[in-house]
Amino acid sequence: MVQIDQWNAATAVAASPTSLYQFDPNRWRRCLAVAQELEPADLLLSGGQVINVFSGELERANVAIVDGLIAGVGNYTQAAKHLDVTNRFVAPSFIDAHVHLESALVWVSEFARAVVPHGTGAVVTDPHEIANVAGLAGIAALRVAATGLPLRVGFTIPPCVPASSAESSGAILTTHDIETALAWPESVGLGELMNYPGTLAGDADIAAKLQISTGRRRDGHAPGLRGPALQAYAGSGVGSDHESTGLEEAREKLRAGLMIMIREGSTEHNLTQLLPLVTDLTYPRCCFASDDRDCHTLLQDGHIDAILRLAISHGLDPIRAIRMATWNAANYWRLDGIGAVAPGYAANLVVLDDIQRVTVGLTFYAGQVVAKDGQFLGTVDLVQAIPAELRDTVRLAPLGLNDLRLSLERAGEAVEVIPGQIVTKAIRVTPIVRDGWAESDSNQDLLKLVCVERHRATGRVGIGYVRGFGLRRGALASSIAHDAHNIVAVGVEDADILMAIETVAGSGGGLAAIVDRRVLAHLPLPIAGILSDQPLERVAASYAGLEAHARELGSTLPSPFGLLAFMALSVIPEARVTDRGFLRVGQS
Amino acid sequence: MVQIDQWNAATAVAASPTSLYQFDPNRWRRCLAVAQELEPADLLLSGGQVINVFSGELERANVAIVDGLIAGVGNYTQAAKHLDVTNRFVAPSFIDAHVHLESALVWVSEFARAVVPHGTGAVVTDPHEIANVAGLAGIAALRVAATGLPLRVGFTIPPCVPASSAESSGAILTTHDIETALAWPESVGLGELMNYPGTLAGDADIAAKLQISTGRRRDGHAPGLRGPALQAYAGSGVGSDHESTGLEEAREKLRAGLMIMIREGSTEHNLTQLLPLVTDLTYPRCCFASDDRDCHTLLQDGHIDAILRLAISHGLDPIRAIRMATWNAANYWRLDGIGAVAPGYAANLVVLDDIQRVTVGLTFYAGQVVAKDGQFLGTVDLVQAIPAELRDTVRLAPLGLNDLRLSLERAGEAVEVIPGQIVTKAIRVTPIVRDGWAESDSNQDLLKLVCVERHRATGRVGIGYVRGFGLRRGALASSIAHDAHNIVAVGVEDADILMAIETVAGSGGGLAAIVDRRVLAHLPLPIAGILSDQPLERVAASYAGLEAHARELGSTLPSPFGLLAFMALSVIPEARVTDRGFLRVGQS
C-alpha cells in the first residue's frame, strides 16, 4: 500500500476517458464488477473517513475507483493500487457556484493550476468579462481552453453583455449568441441577470432572454433588492443570488426562493455577515461562491477551501460546510455526476488532512491525483488556445489633459467606496474648484475617477468624483473595469492619471501605478485587455506589487486595484462612473 | 372580502393559460406590475400564514396571484378578488413523488377527482401498468387524458416493460419507444429500473436504456438491496428508491446517494418504519410516495395528506413534512415552477385549516379553487380520451380444471405473504396430496396461487402455493397483476378458482370473489383489464365490497385483493408465481 507521502504523479492510475460525465457501457460494467467485488478496483482509498453529503455523517469506508468513477463506498479491499488515507478525510472536491474566471487575471489553464491544489474540482463560471470585450468568440475561447483540464468548468451564458445600456462594451452578446452557447454541453444555464432595472421594467430584451432559457437554471444578481422589487425579480424565474451583503437581505432572498450563494471574493467579503443565515432549516438553500478572486488571493489565501476555513472558524459545522460547497452547488446547477463520494459519481475528490482547517492533502480528478500538498501535478500548456483576435483589443483615441477636466455641474456628487464591499454610496460633495474646473483634493480624499472608452476609439471619457481610495499622490489605472472593461483610473494629478491610462493602453491592457510621471508598477494584460499570458506566480507577484504600491501612494483600501475594477460597473448600487460619466445606479 | 365558507366555483378567477409552465412575456409583465404594486392582483389570499419551504418557517404574508402564477408574497393589499385566509395556512399543493395512477382502478380524470380534494397538485407517475398491457399507445392515452386536468402529471417512462423476462406482458416497451416518450415535455425521466438483477448483471438491454436517459433523472427500485449490490445499483445512475421496508436499508440507500421516497400505499406501509431516518441532516434527501393507492383508500384515507397526517402523528414536524411533500419532490424531479409558495411559482396551493391534522380546506390549481372541503369543484369528462384499443384486451385460451393442477415437484416451496408489505418470503412446505396432485388446504392456509397468461391466449398457466391469504373457502381473481397484468387467482376449490378467472375474463378484466360456484362480487375493469370506466365513488364502493367479501371468505389480510395483485410481480423478493410458475426472485 502506498502512503500519501510517497504518492506522486508517476504512481497515478491510467488516464480517464474524456467523456467522464457520459454513459459508457464498458465502464459501467467494470464499475458493476468492482462494486460487486468480482474484480479489483483501479485504486482503493483505504482507512479514511468519508464525508457523506447525503447523510451528513462521517462514514468509515473505503472508496473503490474504476476508470475515473467511484464504483463503490464500503468494505472494499481488492485493487490494483492502494492508497492509505488512515486518519484522513475523503470529501468531494469543492465547487465554486459562481465565479468569473477572468478575475484571476490569468488564462484558464493557469486558473486551474491555481485552484486545483486548493481542492477545487468544479466551477460554474460566467464569462461575461471576456464576452464584454470579445463576444461569443471570447466565450468560445474559454470553453476550448477549459477542455481537458483537471477541473470541470460549467458555463453560464451571460444575458447582460453589456451589463446595461449605461456601459459601452467591446461586444454585444445577442439573444441568438446566447441561444447558441446555451446548447453547448458545458453550459449549465443563463448567466447572472445583472440588468435588474431592465428586468423589473419588463424590457423586451430581457423577455427574449428569459424565453430562450426556459427550463434552464438562471443565475441572479440582485444587490440590495428587497420587498416588492425582490418579489418581481425572483418571480422572473431567476434561481439564485450571490450579491447579498446583509443578513436580512439574504434571508429575504432565501425566502423568495433564491439559492443563496455566500460570496467571499478578493474584494467582496460577505461571509461573516451572512453566515448566521445557515441553520438546520436553511442549509440546503445555501452554497459558496468566490465571484471574483485574483490570482494573488487564490495563491495566498486559497479558493473555496479558504471560504470553508473562514466559515468553520466562525462556527459552521465542517461537514455541513462541505455539503454546501459540494452537493448543494452541484444539485442547484444540475451538475450530474459530481459533488458526492458515492457510487456512480466522478472520482473528483479531496483528501483532507484536517477537517477543521480544511487542509487539502490531495486533489483527485477523474480518479487521478492532480495536486498534492498544494502542488499542481498535472501539466498544462500556458498559451494553448488563445486566439489571436483576443490580443490587441485596446483601441484608444488620442487623449490629452483637457479630456480629463471635470465640469462643476457634474461634480456635486461622488462615489463613496465601502472597504470590503463592491456596493458604493452616492454622496453629495462640494467640489474643489481651480480655474473653473473641479479638481482632485487628497486632503479631503476626493479624487477624480475617470473612465475612458477603449474598444472603438470613440474618445468618450466619463469623469466624476470618488471618495475612499485615499491616494495622497499619483494615479492608478486598470483596463479591468467591470463589465465593459474600458479603462478606469483614479488619481490626484491629472498628468499621472493620463500616464496611467496610456501605460495600460500601451500594453494592450493592464494595470499601472504612476507617481510624478513615473511608472511605479505595471502589469500588462494583453489577452482581451483583462488577462495575462504569463504564469500564475509571476502575475500574482506583480499584482501584489501593484497593490502594495497603491497603498504606498496612500490608499487605505485592502485591495485598491480590486476595487478600482468595479468603479464603472453600472449594475451595482449606488453610484459609478462609466465612460458616459457619473451614474446613480437604479436611476435611468 | 370573500370568506372561505362563501367561496365557490362561481367566484373563481379567470381561467389560467394552458402553458402554465412556459414563459409568457405578457403574463410576466403582469406579474412584474403586481409584484411591484403597480397593478392589483387577480386574487389575494390575505391574513394567513405561508409555509415557506425554503426557510422552513411560517411566514405571515399575503399571496398575490396573477394569471395562475404567484406574483408576490408579502404585504400586498390590492386585488380584484380577496380571499380571507386568517387563521389558516397556505402551502404548496402536495406532490406524490412516485405513483402508478392505474393502481387507483379508475381513469386518469377520476384519479384527479380523487386526489385534488386531498390537496394533491402534482404526481410523478410511472405508467408501467398500462404499458404492460398496451405499450406506448397506453402511455400516450394517459398523457392525453392528463392534459387539462387541475393536476400536474409528470411521467417517468418505464424501462422495464415487461418487468423482467420472467413475466409475459401484453406489450414490450422498446428502447426506441422509451426514447420517443422521454422527449415529451411531460416526461421527467426514466421510470423505475425494476430489473435490478439485469442491471447488476450489466445486461445490454439495460445499458441501452441507461444510454438514452443520460442527463435525465432515473427512478430506482431496489427492494432489499444492500452492500455491494446496492453500490452497483446506485452506481448505475439511478437517483431514487421507494422500496425500502427497513430503516437500515433506507439509511444505506440514502448514504449511497438515492433520494428516499417514503412509501405509504394501500398495501405497502413503510412510513412508520422509515420515519426515524428523517433528521436535520437527512430531510433534504427524503420525500413521500404512494406508489399504489386504490380509489377506496384515496377516498377514505386520502393521498399525500394522509401520509403527512401519519408522519406528523408519529412526531415529524409539520413544516418539515410539508417541505418533503412539496419542494423536495419537485426539486428532485426538476419540476420547475411548482412546490413552493414563492414568486414565479404556479399558484398550485392548498389552504389548510389545521397544520397538524393537514385539513385541506381549499386546493388551488393555477390560481383557481379546484376543490373545497373535500369536494372537487371542477368538471371532468369521465370517458374522455379512452381509445378503443384499450378495451377488450383480455384474450384467454380455453381453460379447464385440468389446467389448474399443481404437480408435486413444483409444490415444495410456497410464497409467504407479509401483511402490509409487498415483499414476500419463500418458504419450504409439505404439499397436500390428492390423486397425485398437490391441493389447497385451508386448514394449514396453504392455497393454490394461479397465474394465467391473458394477452395472447397462449394457454400458459403457472401454479404454486401461497401462505397467508387465509381463505377458508372460495376464490379470488384479479386481472390487475403487477406488472404483466395476467390473471392471478387464489383459492381453496379449483372450480371456484376457474370461475373467478372466467368471470374476470368475461368483463374484459376485473376483480371477482367466488364461493361455491357463485359470484359473490365482481368489479369489471374493461380499460386494459386494469381500470374501470365508472365513476370513482362507484368503483371505490365496489372495491371495498370485494375486499369485505374476501375477508368474509376467511382472509385476515387488510387488503386481500391489493396483495393478490402483487403475487405475480417478478421483481420483488423473495417469491412469486407468474404464468411460468413458481419463481424465486433474484434467482434466474
Keywords:
26% strand; 25% helix; 32 strands; alpha/beta; 15 helices; homodimer; 588 residues; seven-stranded mixed β-sheet
Write the layout of secondary structure elements.
The structure is a homodimer of 588-residue chains.
Chain A: E1 2-3, H1 25-35, E2 41-46, E3 49-52, E4 57-60, E5 62-66, E6 69-74, E7 79-84, E8 89-92, E9 94-99, H2 108-115, E10 120-125, H3 128-146, E11 152-157, H4 175-182, E12 187-190, H5 196-200, H6 204-212, E13 217-218, H7 227-234, E14 240-241, H8 247-255, E15 259-263, H9 271-274, E16 286-289, H10 295-300, H11 304-313, H12 318-333, E17 349-354, E18 359-365, E19 368-372, E20 375-376, E21 413-417, E22 424-428, E23 432-434, E24 437-439, E25 446-452, E26 461-467, E27 475-478, E28 487-491, H13 494-506, E29 510-515, E30 518-524, H14 536-552, H15 560-564, E31 575-578, E32 581-584
Parallel strand pairs in A: 1-7, 2-7, 3-8, 9-10, 10-11, 11-12, 12-13, 14-15, 15-16, 21-26
Antiparallel strand pairs in A: 2-5, 3-4, 5-6, 8-17, 17-18, 18-19, 19-20, 21-22, 23-24, 25-26, 25-28, 27-28, 27-29, 29-30, 31-32
Helix pairs in contact in A: 11-12
